[in-house]
Amino acid sequence: MSKRNICYMVSAIIFILLAIFMIALILAQTVFKPKHPILQTVSSTVKGVSTNVLPPFQVQLNFTLTLEMLLENPNVADFEYKTMENLVYYMDRLVGNLTLPSSTLPAKGSVILACPLLLQIDQFVANLGDIVQDILHGKIVIETKARMPGVITLLGIFKTRLDSISHCNLVLGFPSMVVLEQVCDLKTKL
């Protein structure tokens, strides 16, 4: 083999390696770049108002707020989320919560989960002046916070941790207990 042929072969190998590196870099910045998973409250309904009377003269009034949560994975890899928690607050006081078990969202997949939250009115009544004022106005404003931490694994090697947070303000009509207004905000932390 002549020096000229060796030089051509080395140049071809360097060119091929450079081309592979450039293609991998472009794919890493476009197709395989982690995208934010979506955690969104699609709808919310109130059902199952129940009362219990316990001795000595303690009355408990509970109702179920069902949130339909859209979980969407826009990535080309599966998104494995850990235990998701959904908390409900009234006047910055925790009045209900729900924890959903961990699962996996397939690549480019989505699912709608029904999240029934049992709300405890006795926690609402802790702020008696506020709840009475809200009842007189015919509207009860509650706040929901859902958090979904998870991991996206690309090619079985590269792992990216993501944390999606959904924050919603709901206005419930009283005494009908229907959702009059719903405003949600979505954040994702890489």
TrEMBL record:
GO CC term, one of those recorded:
membrane
Boundaries of every Late embryogenesis abundant protein LEA-2 subgroup domain copy: 71-154
Q: How does it sit in the membrane?
A: Single-pass membrane protein
Subcellular location(s) per record: Membrane
Keywords for this protein: Membrane, Transmembrane, Transmembrane helix
Q: Which InterPro entries match?
A: LEA_2, NDR1-like
Ranges annotated as spanning the membrane: none
Principal location class: membrane
Gene Ontology biological process terms, A to Z: defense response to other organism
Q: Which Gene3D superfamilies match?
A: 2.60.40.1820
Q: Which domain of life is it from?
A: Eukaryota
Output this protein's name. Late embryogenesis abundant protein LEA-2 subgroup domain-containing protein
Please give the organism.
Answer: Capsella rubella
